[in-house]
Structure formats: structure tokens, C-alpha cells
Amino acid sequence: MAPLRDRAAEAALFLDYDGTLAPIVADPVGARPLLGVPELLAALGDRLGVVAVVSGRPVAYLEGALGRPPRVHLAGLYGMEEIGGDGRLRRDAAAEEWRDAVGDATASLLRGLPPGVEVEPKGLAVTVHWRRAPRAAATARAAAAAAAARTGLVAQPGRMSIELRPPVPADKGTVVLRLGTGHAVVGCFGDDVGDVPAFDAVSALGRAGATTVIVAVADLESPPEVIARADVVVQGPVEAVALLRAIAAG
Question: Residue 212, Cα to own-chain centre: how many angstroms?
């Protein structure tokens, strides 16, 4: 991670939330960042050119968990909504057109899934979680696939979950390209398949001349494609946050 420390003002840093800044927990609503993370983000925002938390969570959830650290972008729903460094909320206009379809899918999933399978409405997306009912995984996947086929939403797999979201050109990679282009150093931390587009975008910026660092935050559930793209592998959010503290300290 020396490139980020040595060229801090020229650096852009992109961070996942769940599994990176916050431990994975059984209750998806209850995921909270490790102690001191909001203050750490503020310190990184002071030191680096761009700092962005890029998550599948809604921006309102990220704001509730992290506050609004100065000069830190909060990009939610894979970039479909964002609070920029100026504090203004922006939403993807194309995604807004799918709000009714998301509501329809959410209603059908709430009616049709067995106990223990949780449905997390996100406004412009909906996620089905089966961590508390692993034996219902096939049922949950089938219900999500049926809702996607009926509504036209896109299914995004995750850790013991599947998310339905609008078929618009917005993912973690588009956020990385938009905010990271033009920076001499680009780093990214992530733990799941939703982070693969961000990792690939970092690699693309590297081919264009940037110095890049991809950090996989690993555990026993880590998808192999996440590890395969990494330059550095750390074990869980505790090690990820420790590394971020070292970057903030210079």
C-alpha cells in the first residue's frame, strides 16, 4: 500500500461497506461499522483526493451508519444514488423509472417466502437474504428469479442473498470510473461479487496509466473471483480497517 501513502493527494480510494467496514451479520439491518470507522473515513477524506464508500445499501442506510464524513462520497445501491462530497443527494433518473417494478417485486417476495428468509426493501432495489434459513436457499433463489423475470429487474447475487435492481448501467465499476479517472493512484477494498466490477474498473484505470491497488477482504465465504483479482488479501474487516488506519496515518 506504499503508493497510496506516498502520493496521497493524487489518490482515489473506494471502499465497500458490508464485509469491509462492517462485519457480516445474520440480521442485514443490524450491520454496523467497526468502532471508529466514521472518524477514520473523515481522516482519509482529509488526506486523499477522493474517498468513496460504494455499497449495495441505500444511501440513507450508509448515512445512518456512517454519518456524513467531510469530503467522503456515499454511493448507495451500486451507484444509483449518491451523496457527494458537497452533501447533495443525487439519484439515477433511469433507475427511478423502475421504482414501481421494484415495489411490485418486493410485495410478491414478502408474500411468498418461507419463515427465516428476509426481504430487505431498498426503494430502488430489493434484497432477499437466507442467512438465517440456509435450507431455504433454493426456494429464495427461485422466488427472486421469478420476480426478476416478471418485472424485468436484474438479479445480483451476494453473500447468502440475491438482489433485484433496475437494468440500468450503474454498478460499483461505473462509480470507480467516474470518480477515479484522472487520479494517479486508485485503490479499492471489497469482499463480494458485487465488488468485481469495481475491481475490474480499477484494473482498467491501471491499464490507462494509474498506479492501482486492489484489496480483497477475505473470509471463509469469499468468492474465488474476488480473491483472484486482488493484489493484497486481508482477513476480514478488522484487518481491512487496520490497513486503512495505516493509510490515514501516512
Answer: 19
